[in-house]
Amino acid sequence: MRRGADEIPSPLSLVYIAGNLVDAEAAERWLTDAGMEYTLSVEPFTTRSFLGGEYLGLFISVPTATHRRCRDLLESHGLTDTVEIDSPESLERPHGA
After folding, report:
1. Cα gap 11→26, rounded to integer Å
2. Which of 9, 18, 27, 78 has an alpha carbon within 20 to 30 A of 72's alpha carbon?
3. Please, what are the domains in the chain?
């Protein structure tokens, strides 16, 4: 269930970056259907592809305690742009800050 960052009392970790609306909607649907809490934020990100560049993406953060479960859930449904909990991109964000 989508929440505001201030509504989740535990530290948050980035779990997924959606680069398009279809993937963002799918991630929200799977997390909501599983009863998982998450927050959304639109932030710039860069790609390491041949073309490179900076784009806007939908960043999905979850309570750190549920990170692995949420990541596994998203990957099981084909959403592979997940972030490892020990990745530099996933640094804990107190209340989504």
Report:
1. 24
2. 9
3. 5-83 (3.30.70.790)
